[in-house]
Amino acid sequence: MKKEHCIFCQRDAIKIVFENDLAVAFWDIHPVNKGHLLVIPKDHKEDFFDLSDDELLAIKELIFKGKELTDKNFKADGYNIGTNVGKYGGQTVRHCHFHLIPRYIGDDPKPAGGIRKILVKGQELI
């Protein structure tokens, strides 16, 4: 996807919560839980593997600021932090983005295993 067609590159389409020189954080418009933040590089990079070390550090800084904010305002009991890469990794917006998803007691009756729960059990793994 080209930068001019990327929703995350259209800064007027997102409400920025935090930013630094290389990254921005904003609320997910389709949150999994209250307090769900997205953190993206300012430059259009398709996925995690396109990021520079400096961009990774900038994103990490905002993930920590996001955790502090959600701890204070939403009293999260845990977190999921992740990024999807490619169509078969679940990526739907072709601009690298990290999810900071607060988790709460009772939001999943059996939270153990996280993303592993969606995969077919019994598949042979390498």
Name of the CATH architecture: 2-Layer Sandwich
Domain unit count: 1
Structural class: alpha+beta
Quaternary structure annotation: single chain
The total of helices stands at 1
Short description:
By secondary structure, the chain is an alpha+beta fold. It is 17% helix and 20% strand. A hairpin with a 3-residue loop joins strand 1 and strand 2.
Give the arrangement of secondary structure elements.
Blueprint: E1 16-19, E2 23-27, E3 37-41, H1 53-74, E4 78-82, E5 98-103
Antiparallel strand pairs: 1-2, 2-3, 3-5, 4-5
Explained architecture:
Pfam families: HIT. A motif (Histidine triad motif) lies at residues 95-99. It comes from Oenococcus oeni AWRIB429. InterPro entries: Histidine_triad_HIT, HIT-like, HIT-like_sf. Residues 4-110 form the HIT domain. The chain is α+β, with helices and mostly antiparallel strands and 126 residues long. It has a single domain, classed as 2-Layer Sandwich (HIT family, subunit A). It has one helix spanning 53-74, and strands at residues 16-19, 23-27, 37-41, 78-82, 98-103. It has a 5-stranded antiparallel β-sheet with strand order 1-2-3-5-4, covered by helices on one side. Strand 1 and strand 2 (23-27) form a beta hairpin.
